[in-house]
């Protein structure tokens, strides 16, 4: 074998060994996706009323003072009001004390709602359950009197579970991940174009088995309907998910 041939053979062997000698690539971990909704770590809860009208009145007075509030019915059947999203127990307490000094609230408590960065098991079912707890409640457009319009219901169900879903259906529609109708999961929001204007004007919360809970309109109460029903299937526009 000539010296030239031997040199070429050695080069070929060296090139063949290069990949084995190259440093292994360490996979870079993919960072977790940013939360689609702000987490409500602490909030303030006020009142404990046997009658819904008293909670509605308190929520209305807070709204008049530019404090975004909502009322709900607890497992004990008492009506309460919650407001605010605070990073610490201390900041929530300061805000509550200021509102108490102004005469807007009396009895109150700081409530720890969610842990940032942690998605607890069963969250979807809890959100759906929160929405279903309002079955039979009256509809009021804009929820100015503490009752529910469609987006007020979905907002309340999420905020009771520590997620800051915005107030209006337009804001809710702008957020989240699109979901095909055949892949809906509990707590996804379903949007409808009831006036054939090419935009969502009604929203409900999917509870499973092809059904959703919503506040359907003036003079009606919060109820569950089927997505497959002719009226809603013709007007269904899209769906959004806000959870993993």
What do these coordinates show?
The chain is an alpha+beta fold and 244 residues long. The protein folds into 2 domains: 35-118, Alpha-Beta Plaits (2-Layer Sandwich); 119-244, endopeptidase fold (from Nostoc punctiforme) (Alpha-Beta Complex). Helices cover 32% and strands 22% of the residues. It has helices spanning 3-21, 52-64, 89-101, 123-132, 150-159, 169-174, 230-235; strands at residues 42-49, 69-73, 79-86, 108-112, 177-178, 189-192, 202-208, 211-214, 223-226, 236-241. The strands form 2 sheets. The chain has a 6-stranded antiparallel sheet. A hairpin with a 5-residue loop joins strand 2 and strand 3. The longest helix is centred in the N-terminal third of the chain and has 19 residues, at 3-21. It starts with a helix and ends with a strand.
Task: Summarize this entry quickly.
The chain has 244 residues and is an alpha+beta fold. The protein has helices at 3-21, 52-64, 89-101, 123-132, 150-159, 169-174, 230-235, and strands spanning 42-49, 69-73, 79-86, 108-112, 177-178, 189-192, 202-208, 211-214, 223-226, 236-241.
Helices and strands, with pairings:
Elements (H helix, E strand, L loop, with lengths): L2 H19 L20 E8 L2 H13 L4 E5 L5 E8 L2 H13 L6 E5 L10 H10 L17 H10 L9 H6 L2 E2 L10 E4 L9 E7 L2 E4 L8 E4 L3 H6 E6 L3
Antiparallel strand pairs: 1-3, 1-4, 2-3, 5-10, 6-7, 6-10, 7-8, 8-9
Helix pairs in contact: 4-5
């Amino acid at each position: 074998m000539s010296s030239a041939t031997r040199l070429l053979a050695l080069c070929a062997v060296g090139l063949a060994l290069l990949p084995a000698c190259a440093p292994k690539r360490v996979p870079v971990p993919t960072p977790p996706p940013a939360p689609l909704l702000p987490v409500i770590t602490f909030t303030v809860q006020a009142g404990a009323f046997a009658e819904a009208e008293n909670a509605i009145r308190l929520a209305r007075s807070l709204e008049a003072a530019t404090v975004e509030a909502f009322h709900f019915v607890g497992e004990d059947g008492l009506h309460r009001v919650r407001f605010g999203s605070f990073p610490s127990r201390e900041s929530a307490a300061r805000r509550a004390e200021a509102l108490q000094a102004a005469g807007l609230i009396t009895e109150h408590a700081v409530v720890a709602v969610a842990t940032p960065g942690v998605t607890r098991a069963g969250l979807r079912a809890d959100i759906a359950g929160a929405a279903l707890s309002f079955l039979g409640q009256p509809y009021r457009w804009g929820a100015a009197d503490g009752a529910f319009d469609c987006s007020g219901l979905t907002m309340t169900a999420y905020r009771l579970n520590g997620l800051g879903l915005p107030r209006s259906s337009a804001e809710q529609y702008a957020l989240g991940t699109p979901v095909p109708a055949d892949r809906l999961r509990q707590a996804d929001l379903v949007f409808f174009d009831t006036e054939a204007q090419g935009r969502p004007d009604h929203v409900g919360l999917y509870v499973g088995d092809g059904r959703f809970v919503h506040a359907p309109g003036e003079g009606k109460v919060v109820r569950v309907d089927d997505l497959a029903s002719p009226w809603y299937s013709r007007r269904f526009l899209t769906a959004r998910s806000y959870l993993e």
